[in-house]
Amino acid sequence: MGLEKGKVRWGVLGTATIAENHTLPGMKEACNCQLYAIAGRDPEKTKRFQEKFGFEKTYGSYAELLEDENVDAVYIPLPNQLHKEWTIKAARKKKHILCEKPLAPTVDEVKEVVEICRQEGVILMEAFAYLHSKATREVIQAVRGGAVGKPLFVETVFMVKPWAKENIRMRKETMGGGTYDQGCYNISLMLNLLDEMPDEITAQAHFMENGVDDFSSIYFHFPSGARGYAISGMCCGQRADRYFIHGTEGTLEAPLPYNAKGSLEYYIHKNGKTEKREVETPSNYQLEAEQMGRCILEGEEPLVSNELSIKTAAVLTEALKKIGYY
């Protein structure tokens, strides 16, 4: 499989579950994406990924992959605590970067990563795939367009089942916890819907014995007078993700699972009536890869901007402080 013109040649650092089950299948469908190389610590698993997704090359270390001059961009699905380190190393090698969230543990470290990428002249995008969804984009546009009047209260929920004890999401040293893993979705969505930063944050959480939060509740007040509530965690019997935007003229109800695809529905309740709206959307991961590709090949601006990543990190950092995570 030779190098293909008009496509971004991707290198993947790691063989994480999210890569195998979600991102790589989406990248295979992307029209401007070539899965060129993958690096992993387990040769057998790395070989399996190569055969499954059609990578041309495999490497036994992440550093080796970054030395390959044919790699235009890297996708980083490594554990949270490794995101900052390998994003910086990739930037130093002039690779464009799509990195899973969060980019770094705190807002100051996110700013550092962003600045290094700017200095090196590479594109950096945080992998909030759900923000690429046509359904999510339509909801944001509807709210900003006044579909429910002036937003007064945004209610977001993202809960999942408890993970196995050895899972990285359940360990403090790997930046685990419901607020880091699910709450960042609620926060980034709220910032997109309201297009402003909160001026007040209060929060509380429940912590497991190992110091990781399995439930948090965060309240926000915004300069416009709007308020928000984010509930997240990993202590439910089944996944639950939904959000409501209550405005002066009605309510938008979006039972949209983050990162879902297919025919998705949301509802506008107004004047005693309910309007159902349907949106057909392909894989968010496909849309994410294609958008990143256009940024690299055509100069398009990243949908998930560095400014949004910094704002999300600022709110997330403050929320984690409020619940006593640090």
From TrEMBL:
On whether Oxidoreductase is a keyword of this UniProt record, the answer is yes
Q: Where is the GFO/IDH/MocA-like oxidoreductase domain?
A: 137-253
Instruction: Tell me which domain of life the UniProt entry assigns to the organism this sequence originates from.
Output: Bacteria
This entry's Gene Ontology molecular function terms read: nucleotide binding; oxidoreductase activity
Residue ranges occupied by any Gfo/Idh/MocA-like oxidoreductase N-terminal domain in the UniProt entry: 8-127
Keywords tagged on the record = Oxidoreductase
Q: Which InterPro entries match?
A: Gfo/Idh/MocA-like_OxRdtase_N, Gfo/Idh/MocA_domain, GFO_IDH_MocA-like_dom, NAD(P)-bd_dom_sf
Q: Name one Pfam family in it.
A: GFO_IDH_MocA
Please report which protein family the annotation says this sequence is part of.
Belongs to the Gfo/Idh/MocA family.
Q: What is this protein called?
A: Gfo/Idh/MocA family oxidoreductase
Q: Organism, per UniProt? A: Candidatus Lachnoclostridium stercoravium
